[in-house]
């Protein structure tokens, strides 16, 4: 679905115009005289993407009194370029062959060129941040640090069942939530908002990002292979233990689950299937579904600090569309360390 269709009608024309300016700047930024550098840099840019992060920047700025087009366009481009750069690097780390329905850059040109293309996009992201000014350059630098920390932490936790849900949430905060949080705060900065308002906008983006990743990780345990785009239990098989698995380890069923997962990954299919039965049977999947809803509610609380109007309503609708709330299930407590 086109995210513009989710916006309140009075905003659609202006938001469409602003996103068109963002798209134009993105393509101009990645253009290179060298044909190979040009093709590799724009590879994923032209493969699609809903431009969710730039739209968040635009809508937050609009809700708080959007400035002139140029600086806002630069700020919106900065988070999208950094996001694109991480996709190149993630595909190299994961050895992925496909991204957005097309061959990954590493599959098409090799790992070395894919890394260099990602590095180039990172540099372009910081150029855009510098053009935006205000706190955006420092914000993007802190976000990039968090992205790297999240990636490194995830790598160190593969196959470990002793980290608990706190370790998982730290990875999610770095790898996913930090960039959505930065996109929201950049919009507030471009509107010249007070520090407290910038913090609330950032908290909304961060909490929404956690909800999104938790819901996305649930697909590994609940969706069909066609919906998830990979075999069910694939993350579990590789030793990437998400919230429901780690929650189950802390439950009375955890002793058996630790026995099933005692050998280093990748785990054989019978072990994966038994582990999934344990996770479902102890209620961890149900608790995780409720936790997604609680994070969405917490995000709405942060969003409530923004002035009421079409932009705030559109942000809530956009966030809820990004993270469809699971069916109603028993309550789970949101850890205070996240989304506070």
Give an overview in words.
- By secondary structure, this protein is an all-alpha fold.
- It has a single domain, classed as Farnesyl Diphosphate Synthase (Orthogonal Bundle).
- 71% of the residues lie in helices and 1% in strands.
- The chain has helices at 9-30, 35-41, 52-64, 69-94, 105-109, 111-132, 136-157, 164-190, 195-222, 225-228, 234-237, 243-249, 254-260, 269-281, 284-303, 310-322, and strands spanning 98-99, 102-103.
- It has a two-stranded antiparallel sheet.
- Helix 7 runs antiparallel to helix 8.
- Mean pLDDT is 91; it is low at 327-333 and 336-340.
Number of domains: 1
Strand order of the largest sheet: 1-2
CATH topology category name: Farnesyl Diphosphate Synthase
Order of helices and strands: HHHHEEHHHHHHHHHHHH
- Determine the fraction of residues in helical runs and give it as a percent range: over 70%
Q: What is the CATH architecture assignment?
A: Orthogonal Bundle
Q: How many E strands?
A: 2
The overall pLDDT average reads 91
CATH superfamily: Farnesyl Diphosphate Synthase
Give the overall shape, derived from the CA principal axes: globular
């Amino acid at each position: 679905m086109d995210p513009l269709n989710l916006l309140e009608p009075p905003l659609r024309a202006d938001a469409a115009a602003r996103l068109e300016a963002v798209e134009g700047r993105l393509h101009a930024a990645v253009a290179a005289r060298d044909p190979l550098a040009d093709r590799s840099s724009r590879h994923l840019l032209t493969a699609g993407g809903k431009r969710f992060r730039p739209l968040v920047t635009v809508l937050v700025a609009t809700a708080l009194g959007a400035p002139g087009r140029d600086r806002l366009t630069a700020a919106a481009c900065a988070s999208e370029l950094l996001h694109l750069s991480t996709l190149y690097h993630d595909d190299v780390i994961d050895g992925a062959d496909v991204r957005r329905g097309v061959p990954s850059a590493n599959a098409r040109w090799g790992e070395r060129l894919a890394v260099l293309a990602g590095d180039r996009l990172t540099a372009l992201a910081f150029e855009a941040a510098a053009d935006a000014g205000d706190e955006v350059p420092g914000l993007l630098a802190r976000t990039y640090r968090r992205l790297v920390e999240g990636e490194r932490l995830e790598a160190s936790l593969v196959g470990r069942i002793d980290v608990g849900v706190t370790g998982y949430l730290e990875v999610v905060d770095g790898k996913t939530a930090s960039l959505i949080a930065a996109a929201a705060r950049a919009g507030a900065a471009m509107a010249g908002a007070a520090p407290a308002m910038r913090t609330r906008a950032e908290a909304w983006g961060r909490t929404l990002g956690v909800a999104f990743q938790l819901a996305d990780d649930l697909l590994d345990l609940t969706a069909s292979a066609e919906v998830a785009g990979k075999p069910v239990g694939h993350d579990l098989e590789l030793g990437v233990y998400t919230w429901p698995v780690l929650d189950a380890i802390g439950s009375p069923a955890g002793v058996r689950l630790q026995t099933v997962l005692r050998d280093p990954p990748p785990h054989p299919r019978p072990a994966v299937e038994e582990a999934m039965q344990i996770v479902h049977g102890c209620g961890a999947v149900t608790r995780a579904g409720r936790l997604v809803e609680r994070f969405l509610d917490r995000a709405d609380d942060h969003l409530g600090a923004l002035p009421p109007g079409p932009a705030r309503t559109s942000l809530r609708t956009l966030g809820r569309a990004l993270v469809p709330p699971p069916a109603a299930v028993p309550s789970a407590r949101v850890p205070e360390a996240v989304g506070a």
